[in-house]
Every structure is written in C-alpha cells, then in structure tokens.
Amino acid sequence: MSTHNEQATARPVPSPRGVGQSVADPATEPPDTPFGALRSVLTGRARHLYGAAVLRVGYGLLYLVFLLREFPHRDEIWGPGSPWTPALTRQLFDQTGWVSVLTLSDSRLYFEAVYALAMLTAALFLLGWHTRVVSVVFAVLVASFHAKAIFVTDGGDNLILLMALYLSCTACGRRWSLDARRAKRRAAAKGHAAPVPPGAEAGRPGLRQQLTLCREELTTALHNCAMVVIAVQVCVLYGAAGLFKVQGGAWGNGTALHYVLNLDLFRPWPALSSLVDSHEVLLTVICYLTVLSQVAFPFVLFGRLKYPVLGLMLATHLSIAALMGLPLFSGAMIVADAVFLSDGAYRWLAGAARGRLRGRRRPPEGVDDARPGHDAPEAAHPAGTDHGEPVGAR
Amino acid sequence: MKAAGPVPEKTEGEAPAEPPRPVSEHPRPPRLLRGTVSLIVALLVVVASVHTVMVFFHVAPRNAVSQRYGEQIDAWVYPFFEQDWRLFAPNPASANVQISVKTRQEMPDGATRESDWFDLTALDTSAVRHHVFPSHTAQNTLRRAWSAYVDAHGAEDVPHSDRAVMLRDYLRNIAADRVAEHRPGPFDAVRLRVETVPIAAHGAQQVSPNAVETRDLPWWEVSQG
C-alpha cells in the first residue's frame, strides 16, 4: 500500500493489495527469521491511518446522531424508567458477566450526566481530541449503553460496539483529527531543525528514551493488529451472513426480498416498498447478487474487483437505509466497509474533494502534497526515512 | 532484530523529510528490553489470531468445531464480542406479529373490569411510518422483547427458567408502560394477545383469515397502577 509513498497521491486507483498491508515491505530490514519479519512489519510503521481515521469519524458521528435521535426516548431505552428495569439489568449481568457504568446508580440525575458525557465523548472522538484516552472512554460508554439496553439493540448497535472496542486499540487519531492538527502546529513551531528521534541527541540513549521507543513500537504493533482484526471482523460478518443465507430456501429461490419488503416495522414508506416489491425479476436478481457478494466478499478484497463489490455493498446499504428505515445499521456497515480503502485511495479522495472546493483550478499531480497545511503526511516521508529506518539495527 | 529508528509516527504528518540518520546515532535498546517487546508483539499476534478464529466459529452456522469447543468459544467471545449476523437469514420472517394488550382493574366490590384490546404494534408501525430514522423503541423494543420471550418460553406461557421469568416481566412492563401512556385510568393486570399474520407469497392476493395464528397469554399482575 503506502510502500509507494511517492506515487500515492498521483494515482487515482490505489494498489490492489487492500488488506494485504501485512505483506512484508521489501525495503525493510531483511529479517533473520519469519518472526523477525513479522515483528518489523508490525512495529515498523502504523498502517492504514486514514482508514482508521475514517472509522473513528464514522462511528463517532453515528453514535452522536444516534444519541441525539433517541434523546426523547433515552429513559425508555437506557434510563432508570426503562421496562428493562435496573433490577432486571443487574440480574442479567450476574448471569452474563456484562458490566455497565449505567448500573452504578439508579438516580435520574446520574443517568442524565452519563448521557451528556456519552454525547460529549462521541463528539470528541469524532473530532479526534486526545484520541487515545477518549477512544477508551468511548468504548466503555458504548459498551455500557449496549449492555443496559441489550434487548433493544440490533445488528447496527452490535457492529458499533465491536468497532468501538477495536478502535480503542488503534491509533485512529493520527489523521484528520484535532490531535493531528496540534502535532502539525507543534512541528511547524519547532521549525525544520526539530524532529530529532528520541534518544539520538546523545551518543548513549538513556533508559527513558529506550522505553519510549519500545512503547512506540508496541502501540504501532497494537494498532496494526487491531486494524487486521477489524478487517477480518468485517469479512467474518459478511461471510457468516452469506453462509446463513445460502441455507435458506427464500434466498435460494429469490423470494427473500419480497418478505423483507413486507415487514411492517421495516416499511417506513409503504408505497415505495410496494413499488419495489412489484418488480419481481429485479428483486430476484438483487437477492442473488446479495448472497453472492456476501459470500464472495473476503475473496475479492485482494484485487481490483473489490471496488465494484464495495460499490455494490454501498448501494445495498443505502437502499436498506432508505427503504427499511435502518440508517444506523446501514451507516455502521458503510463505515465498516470503508476500512478496505487504502490510504492512497483516501488521499486521492481528499485531494479530489479539496480540488472541488477550490473550483476547477487543479494543481498538477504531486504538488498538492508539498503545500504546507496539507495533511498527506506520508509525503513528508520519502522512502528513505521510512525504509531506511531499520538500518540502525544491523 | 532492529532497534526502532526515527520513530515514524512521531514525525508523520509533520515537518519536512529528514535524511536517514547514520547508523551510530540510532539508539539500540538493550537486549532484555528488545526481548520484552518481541514477546509482547508475539502475544499480540497470538491474541489477534485466536480472537478472529473464535469470532468466526461463534458466528458461523453450527459445525463440528463450534459443537466440540463451544465452551471455550463462548468463554472467549462473551459478553463483549457476542454477535449474530443472520440478518434475515436463513429465511426472512414471513409474517408480521401483531401484539395487543388489555387491562383489568379490580373494583372495591370485588368485581373486575376489563378494557378492550389496545393495539401495541400499531403504535410502533405508525411511529415508523414516514420516518427517515425510526426510533429503536418502535422497531426493536417490542419486537425483540416478544422474540426473546418466545425463545425462552417456547409454545407454553409458563416460565421454566430464571431468564423466562425475567423476559415475561420485561414484556409485561413494556405493555403496561405503553398502555398507561395512551389510556388513562389505573389497572392491576395486563394480558397480551399475539397474532401472527403471514405475508402472502408473491402473486397471492390476500392471506386468508384462517392463516392468522392467535396466541392468548395469561393475565399478568402489575404492581404499579
């Protein structure tokens, strides 16, 4: 993926490797063992930082919108006045091992305070403010709300919970965030003389600097592992959804969508649902496409075929959002799919968006990155810095 | 093994490129420290791999592995990573569930007064209608409470487990809260009627009234009026 830093912004279509970020970088240190190779891939550089940032913004925004949307129903869903009473919640927690900050007190005031905190946390998470700490708080709160209202949740809530847990292990605040802006300003203030690697000032680095280095290697490895887990999680999701569908007669004979379109609770626009329902041939085709794309999903990710399939998934989820009144679920799925776009693709999209904002005037390729304030930081790393890094080891 | 050089994530997103530093300037953490890092990285890789395998067998259709190692899989996955992606599969529901409630009030003279049926599902359906972002309270609360009740009770309405009792109380609370919100007056018991209305196959005009299945639930006392 970003092994081709110098080309990344110039190329509209990113490298087909997709999730294959774990493929060893040919330029990195020739490791002596397979584990050595894996270790340097994992600790060397945090990968897919734009993808992580998109997930952060996506889930932060979705959760914030969700909490605002359910604000009038907050007591019924999560509060002390819910039909799933605090006593029932505690009884279930004793059986399942769940925990929630919402059961620490049954006072109305406490609940309102936690609700406000959850909205604030979602907003800060989305903005990427002190992301490491905020992402952990976000995960704790999402889990708490999920656990308290476990019988009101659906697949969308479930996916947001999983992603919140995984994202707390990633460096999702390094791009497109307040943290990134702060880091950039700090660096600009220091000027060109600045970035001295910790420990390099003196000939013999102190223990503290060494510990810092190790910590950074570990957070990088944690981030990379978490990103792989997120990608695999999405594949497992589609794979399982597909495996279950191929077992069903209605998906096999192409009539499944007829029944889905006639569920009263998922028919916000009955006239529209009926209209779609009347096109039997179209429904059959979409039905088979759904099953095929879900089953095939994990296998298309390593080639260019992933773009049409991701586009198909996007279209599916947009239709589900509108036709079935499930925008939260669909949003959660769309954001999850976004993990499969490479950093190159994101930089290209960001560049295109910026170009659009500036009108027709388009800078020549590559120029964009050299401009101050442009957040395509990998461009500030000609291959030499990134890949020359391990030289020190030998 | 290598020592981390100029730590990339520190400088990424910032200032201009910096030439690679000469070898001698690279700090090289002592062997023990590097060993510890390697160990933790190995642990991370193992945890991540085990996690993805566990999650896969947790969500996959029943199979030899998930039957044989069910306990270990559950121990790993529950509670935080529980998930279910059956999403309208193997087959989407082919019926709409219509839940109604009636209330009963005992009079001072010992007689009882029953209300007529109040359609709880109609409330949900009308809350969903023409809404871009329907609330979970309309789409999920009653629907999932009923399916959880059925899972715990089967065809009988006598609870045989703690969980069944809890889910009965939950369903009763939902019904009581909602009817109290829409109909004034006290009551001391509620009773549900659940009608399962099949969705007609494509081409078929209407579902015959005989196809509708009705389940009458017993009276449940409620503590608050």
UniProtKB/TrEMBL annotation, chain A:
<feature type="region of interest" description="Disordered">
    <location>
        <begin position="358"/>
        <end position="394"/>
    </location>
</feature>
<keyword id="KW-1133">Transmembrane helix</keyword>
<feature type="transmembrane region" description="Helical">
    <location>
        <begin position="109"/>
        <end position="127"/>
    </location>
</feature>
<protein>
    <submittedName>
        <fullName>HTTM domain-containing protein</fullName>
    </submittedName>
</protein>
<feature type="domain" description="HTTM-like">
    <location>
        <begin position="44"/>
        <end position="345"/>
    </location>
</feature>
<feature type="transmembrane region" description="Helical">
    <location>
        <begin position="134"/>
        <end position="153"/>
    </location>
</feature>
<feature type="transmembrane region" description="Helical">
    <location>
        <begin position="281"/>
        <end position="302"/>
    </location>
</feature>
<dbReference type="InterPro" id="IPR052964">
    <property type="entry name" value="Sporulation_signal_mat"/>
</dbReference>
<feature type="transmembrane region" description="Helical">
    <location>
        <begin position="49"/>
        <end position="68"/>
    </location>
</feature>
<feature type="transmembrane region" description="Helical">
    <location>
        <begin position="225"/>
        <end position="244"/>
    </location>
</feature>
<feature type="region of interest" description="Disordered">
    <location>
        <begin position="1"/>
        <end position="32"/>
    </location>
</feature>
<feature type="transmembrane region" description="Helical">
    <location>
        <begin position="309"/>
        <end position="326"/>
    </location>
</feature>
<feature type="transmembrane region" description="Helical">
    <location>
        <begin position="159"/>
        <end position="176"/>
    </location>
</feature>
<dbReference type="GO" id="GO:0012505">
    <property type="term" value="C:endomembrane system"/>
</dbReference>
<keyword id="KW-0472">Membrane</keyword>
<dbReference type="InterPro" id="IPR011020">
    <property type="entry name" value="HTTM-like"/>
</dbReference>
<keyword id="KW-0812">Transmembrane</keyword>
<feature type="compositionally biased region" description="Basic and acidic residues">
    <location>
        <begin position="362"/>
        <end position="394"/>
    </location>
</feature>
